[in-house]
Specification:
By secondary structure, this protein is of the alpha+beta class. Helix 1 crosses helix 2, helix 1 packs across helix 5 and helix 5 packs parallel to helix 6. A hairpin with a 2-residue loop joins strand 7 and strand 8. It has seven helices and 19 strands. The strands form five sheets. Strands 11, 12, 13, 14, 15, 18 and 19 form a seven-stranded mixed beta sheet that branches. It has a five-stranded mixed beta sheet with strand order 2-3-9-4-5, with helices on one face. It is globular. The two termini are about 30 Å apart. The protein binds zinc ion. The site of zinc ion has 5 residues, from helix 1 and helix 5.
Amino acid sequence: MLQTTIIRTVRTEGVGLHTGVRGEVRLVPAPADTGIVFRRFDLDHFEIEAHGKNVARVSYATSLMKQGVLLSTTEHLLAAIYSCGIDNIYIDINSIEVPILDGSAEPFMEMIEQAGIRKLRRKRRYLKVEKALEVVEGDRRIGIYPAEEFYVQCYVDFPHPLVGKQKVEMVVNPESFRGLLAQARTFCFERDIPPLKAMGLIRGGSLDNAIVLTEDGVMNGPLRYADEFGRHKALDLIGDLALVGLPLLARVEAYKAGDALHTQLVSRLLADPSLWTITTQETAHSEEPIPAHQFSPASALSTD
Ligand SMILES: [Zn+2]
């Protein structure tokens, strides 16, 4: 497989969910071996690589920080880029936060469609996981395991009549992402809004960019999928895994995890090179079923 980039520059603009700051995003073609790189064009094109080494510890969304320059809420845009198999791209942005748009990855998928994808004359490098790694925090877990392709399983459990237990599992590719996850929107609980507002953490939040769950229903329906919440969490997971910096050959299982746990897994994985190898060899499509894994509550669920 060869590395890819986009064919032409495309742009969009909107407000950031957390900061409320308006910004413009341009997706720009990049040469082989660039990777996915944000450039703050309001700061002299200061570059922040979409890589685990730049993950910032903040209490909301996924944020990158390099030399004091912050960039927030990268996960939806990165999920679209990573799922589409784009190896090299500049994301030029003039604000502190990626616009939330409709709260899903669909607007970014449309941008990528307009931009087009082309192959470069350089072999794609994969990060192939050789040994398992798990991160556990109370009843939340995430693990990464050897596999022949990029596979995710995401389990959520919120005590709400519209959510409850939801599980999504899929091999990640442009078709599966577009068909199953891209349109799933950000969500929050009505009861969390006053404290989030008081902390200034949802300055750009509105009923147009997040599903708001009331005690027993949804304030701004209809939902796009009955299990839109589980699907959105899987979308976030893929966007955070993009911070590995290379396409993954691995199976990732997240159990009630979130951005903090996702990025912790990425950081710990990258910090231990004995867990993986870098290869240009795309493994042949495995005919064998993926072995069932002991994530006990999730594996007891029906996913049909
Ligand atoms: Zn999200």
